[in-house]
Design a protein that fits this description.
The protein has 312 residues and is mainly α. The chain has 13 helices and no strands. The longest helix is centred in the middle third of the chain and has 37 residues.
Length: 312
Amino acid sequence: MITDRRTEFEATLTRTAESRAQEAGAAIARASLWRDALHRFMGNRAAVVAAFAFLVMLVFVTVVPFVSNQDPYAVDFSQSFLKPSMDHPFGTDEFGRDLFIRTALGGRISIAIGFAATFAIMFVGIVYGAVSGFAGGHVDNGMMRFLDALYGLPYLPFAIITLAIFGKTNFWTMTIALTVASWFTTARVMRGQIITLKENDYVRAANALGARWYRILFRHLLPNTLGVILIFVFLELPGVVLGEAFLSFLGMGVDPPKASWGTLAQDGYTAYQQHPYIIVIPSLCIGWLIISAFFVADGLRDALDPRTREKF
């Protein structure tokens, strides 16, 4: 009896040792930064709801113009100022044009200008800040003092001056006007990131191996700032969209009969006392986009920061 139990115990120990040996020789699953960040982002309910709301708005401005049977430019004064109904969910304006499809088309223009200006801001700011932070020394000092001088430029007045210089307002002139005085903060943040990252061991190793400066900058440093860039896109987008809406509200928006959310709000301002829905609808769309983008940016910041791991 004792011998049988001893044999069984030895066999169990042998199987356990073999199992541990197999586990020790097995490949360790590699952690993924973006998979881990996605898991933390999905654990942030506010950010997930905001991302869904943001996608709903994008679907609305993309799909509605294709499925609607209303003509956004047809003038019919007999249909002027109709209240929201089944035929016209958002009502009609003073020219009898359906506001549902015009809001969707206006959203296309506002969001397109917002993304175009945001990417232009990111490009200029990233290049300027990366070169300044990577070069260091007198080059960095001179570029930062120049940037300090530019900080004195007022954002919206300078955008108005830029549009006045062009003499016309369209998609490209509006994008340039919103970009000219908006890239300064992005450049400062990128400079700080590059200064921090270039002190890492892998950058020193690349320098020791004789890697060229442009390879170190574009192969090792800039890819590691992708998370910060992604956050800044969603932080910068609301300000750009709001800036476009403000300029359009002042009468410097896209030329009619095309419209953006800002020009729709400007049209509604003239009749908001009798027909408040005309100004409320584009205002709600602007607020929808801004709030959802801010919450998405906040969620991305938490998801891409390893120090928030214990929260989720």
